[in-house]
From TrEMBL:
GO terms for biological process: mitochondrial RNA 3'-end processing. One of its GO terms (cellular component) is mitochondrial degradosome. It comes from Lentinula lateritia. Signal peptide: none annotated. SMART domains: HELICc. It comes from the Eukaryota. Residues 421-575 form the Helicase C-terminal domain. InterPro entries: DEXQc_SUV3, Helicase_C-like, P-loop_NTPase, RNA-DNA_Helicase, SUV3_C, Suv3_C_1. Keywords: ATP-binding, Helicase, Hydrolase, Nucleotide-binding. Transmembrane segments: none annotated. One of its GO terms (molecular function) is helicase activity. This is P-loop containing nucleoside triphosphate hydrolase protein.
């Protein structure tokens, strides 16, 4: 694979080339439906292969590090991610980059293919691009007026996660369409390509244009909101005041990135475990529960705990939970709600809203939901909690809305220090350690090896585990009497699980990005390392971070010493309306991929916005197979649903789901899973659970159960949006707890414990979860109640006799 240039020497540029010929494929999330989960799976052979190719000005450093698998070290190349080293303050450098590379960009085959898919005739593409290149090289598009008009500073707003050739392609294409549709260019463009083609370009440009996204949220624009940002590192207690304000608000909503967090807030509000603002005395003298996922430790300025380990009934508030897969209704008239960010209502009026993990506003997969929340939440007072990196971008967004902004900054309650490396010796793992790895095989190998080397049992946490199981594993680790003294996990520990960790141990400092191994970013490293320091809660003097390999220690030390870089842009996501408008401006045969690409490559926005992007090739191609039978709205819904498109084990179920909906507009969960390995595996595990004295399982069984849980979540997600077509959500509610119990049991049986491991009593479900049960009704319960009431009313009406005038 070839990589794009950065602003380095012209000598290096003369030897190397700019863009690869691979098409940039995107997933663009929709603000009107909940998130499309990024799928994962085994990379293809092509993706695992690092193609040799030239690049322009990219500093490619290959670092060889050993894999820990069974101590049989292999040489895995870690590739430094190339970056566009351009600064917003360096206008001259940006213009030089723009002008020196435009000609190479214009010759890329992938660009020509994309422009053709956007409706420009093949014979018009080359002459139009030549005209554009000529205008750029003449300086007409980079003078003082044009610099801002065409937002050239976008070239300096890439992130470390962006591939430069893809990002530069997006910026160039956007400038190209803005220039071609500009009335000032009309005469020259029309002479080159003709009026019909020019009209199609203008129609697409205006259909995709979104320069004032805040104007779409009319309810929020009717009042001047007060925005309070609580920013600081992990374990700084930054969420403390926000949650106390929520508990005291007449009406309010909490919105976080994970169902796990939404569930915890829901539970604690209902149990009276969050102390309302204004209550400073006579609270129960207890602090954060052992399994809390909240960053709400008592701050120096406020000695009243935000969260009590034992509830106080006088603080209890009725709160409902709303996530993409699950609704828990305590009281239909409850004044408080807890939700995932994607499920926020932008029309409902609140007194107060808390938006957690605000730095996710720049996340390419889900950031659109945070952008919508900041611009559109209809609340008098809004609390934004997260990293310092988000402050500049929030300031830019609120400059458009004219809301009041107050920034409150917090420091870590305990310092973070670098500890001596383990030097490849797992016997040096200690009680309270969290060992972080970035593949499931490494996680289970580490679990087994640590248990053999130390005699301590290890809990495990990784991304594919359902939130309920992750929470259960966290409970085991946090409970000093469980016997689980160490936790092994992926970067999933970085959000939603504030664990009682004494020391973070990085097994590796690189992770697979879908194509090659890349070093962790500064933000990723800080987020993971920052989880250390809550081992003894406030009694701990510091948190520790170290590495398994001594050669990795300088990387962690340097990353922690570097400041956070401000987020470059807030992510936007297409809506159903924008997809409809763009589809009308494209050729009639336009695919889903083309519709989404038009948002990314054509849309004109302000520099501090950009459309979200990720890989949608498998998803779009699969859904488009049924394009003749599905409406555009249905196709978009399937594309954005939490579908594990890249999991081979799910293919049969996914095709059956699409086929049944396309042909019958009806999908039953029983028919969907009947005869599949998912239901069969569940039944086998349940039989073993009832007959075997100790858990015994394998990673394949665990993987099938994980996917089963995800597919059940998919059905629930679809059922909330179309309950007529997906008519068995109640069965999903019955099956999910069964799968979770089987997963918990299988997870215990994946590795064999060594003789030195302490024996503990295994629990089929986390005890804390049972002890904190809150009475609620599900969406299915409410549907049944409404049906029963309707039937009762019908019978009453039928028995009342004829009505006489």
């Amino acid at each position: 694979m070839s990589f794009a240039l950065n602003a380095l020497t012209s000598a290096s540029k003369s030897q190397l080339s700019l863009f690869s010929n691979r098409s940039a494929l995107w997933l663009l999330s929709n603000p009107l439906v909940a998130r499309r989960f990024k799928s994962s799976g085994k990379p293809s052979k092509r993706a695992r292969t690092l193609h040799n190719g030239n690049s322009i000005g990219v500093h490619r450093t290959q670092k060889h590090r050993p894999s820990t698998f069974a101590y049989k070290w292999s040489r895995n190349a870690v590739i430094e991610r190339p970056e566009l080293h351009l600064s917003l303050d360096d206008h001259i450098g940006i213009v030089r980059y723009f002008e020196e590379n435009v000609e190479h960009w214009s010759k890329q085959k992938v660009l020509h293919s994309r422009l053709e898919s956007f409706g420009i005739p093949t014979e018009s593409i080359h002459p139009l691009l030549q005209l554009f290149v000529s205008e750029v090289l003449s300086g007409n598009l980079s003078n003082n007026d044009s610099y801002d008009k065409y937002t050239l500073d976008r070239f300096a707003r890439s992130t470390p996660e962006d591939l430069p050739q893809t990002y530069a392609d997006i910026v160039y294409t956007g400038i190209f369409y803005a220039w071609a549709a500009d009335p000032a260019s009309q005469d020259a463009v029309e002479r080159t390509i003709g009026p019909a083609t020019l009209l199609s370009i203008q129609r697409l440009f205006h259909a995709a244009r979104l320069e004032h996204p805040a104007d779409d949220f009319l309810e929020a624009r009717r009042t001047r909101r007060k925005i309070i940002m609580h920013v600081g590192p992990t374990n700084s207690g930054k969420t403390h005041h926000a949650l106390r304000a929520l508990a005291a608000a007449p009406t309010g909503v909490y919105a976080g990135p994970l169902r796990l967090l939404a569930h915890e807030i829901w539970e604690r509000l209902n149990l009276g475990q969050i102390v309302p603002a204004g209550v400073e005395q006579d609270v129960m003298p207890a602090s954060l529960p052992i399994d809390s996922a909240l960053d709400v430790d008592v701050t120096a300025a406020d000695t009243t705990p935000a969260v009590l380990s034992q509830g106080n009934t006088k603080f209890a508030r009725a709160c409902n939970m709303i996530t993409g897969e699950e609704h828990k209704i305590v009281d239909p008239e409850a004044a408080l709600e807890s939700a995932t960010v994607e499920m926020l209502s932008m029309t409902k009026k609140y007194d107060l809203a808390v938006i957690d993990e605000i730095q996710m506003i720049a996340d390419v997969g889900r950031g659109y939901a945070w952008t919508s929340a900041v611009l559109g939440i209809n609340a008098k007072e809004v609390h934004l909690c997260g990293e310092e990196t988000a402050v500049p971008i929030v300031q830019a967004l609120l400059a458009e809305t004219h809301d009041e902004l107050e920034v409150r900054r917090y420091k870590r309650l305990t310092p973070l220090q670098i500890d001596k490396s383990l030097d490849k010796d797992l016997s040096k793992v200690q009680k309270g350690d969290c060992v972080v790895a970035f593949s499931r095989s490494s996680i289970f190998w580490l679990k087994n090896s640590i248990e053999k080397a130390t005699g301590m049992k290890c809990a495990v946490v990784y991304g594919k585990l359902p939130p309920e199981i992750r929470s259960g594993q966290a409970d085991l680790f946090n409970d000093p009497n469980s016997g689980y003294d160490v936790i092994v996990g992926s970067d999933a520990i970085g959000m939603g699980l504030n664990l009682k960790i004494r020391r973070i141990v990085f097994e590796a400092v690189s992770k697979f990005d879908g194509e090659v191994l890349r070093p962790l970013s500064i933000s990723q490293t800080k987020q993971i390392a920052g989880r250390a320091g809550r081992y003894g809660m406030l009694q701990e003097q510091c948190g520790l971070a170290t590495t398994f390999l001594p050669e990795d220690l300088p990387f962690v030390e340097q990353a922690l010493a570097k400041p956070f870089a401000p987020l470059p842009a807030a992510i936007l996501g297409p809506s159903y309306n924008s997809c409809r408008d763009i589809a009308r401006a494209l050729p009639p045969s336009a695919s889903l991929r083309t519709i989404y690409d038009a948002h990314v490559y054509v849309a004109k926005t302000k520099p501090h916005y950009r459309y979200s992007s990720s890989n949608i090739d498998k998803a779009a191609d699969t859904v488009d197979e049924y394009s003749d039978q599905l409406s555009l709205e249905d196709r978009i819904t399937f594309l954005l649903a939490p579908v594990p498109w890249r999991e081979p084990d799910c293919v049969e179920v996914l095709y059956k789901l699409l086929k049944n909906y396309a042909e019958d507009l009806s999908v039953g969960v029983t028919d969907l899973f009947q005869g599949t390995q998912f239901l069969e595996t569940l039944l086998i595990v349940e039989k073993k659970m009832s007959t075997l004295p100790l858990p015994k399982s394998d990673t394949k069984t665990l993987s099938i159960l994980e996917l089963f849980h995800k597919l059940l979540g998919l059905y629930a997600w679809l059922a909330f949006r179309n309950p007529v077509a997906y008519y068995e959500p109640e069965l999903v509610e019955e099956w999910k707890p069964r799968v979770e119990r089987a997963l918990h049991w299988a997870l215990q049986g994946v590795t064999r414990h060594s003789k030195g491991t302490r024996k503990t009593v295994e629990s089929p479900l986390p005890v804390a979860a049972v002890a904190r049960k809150v009475e609620f009704r599900t969406a299915g319960d409410l549907r049944k109640q409404r049906k029963a009431e309707a039937l009762s009313n019908k019978k009453t009406w039928a028995n009342s006799g004829p009505v006489h005038a």
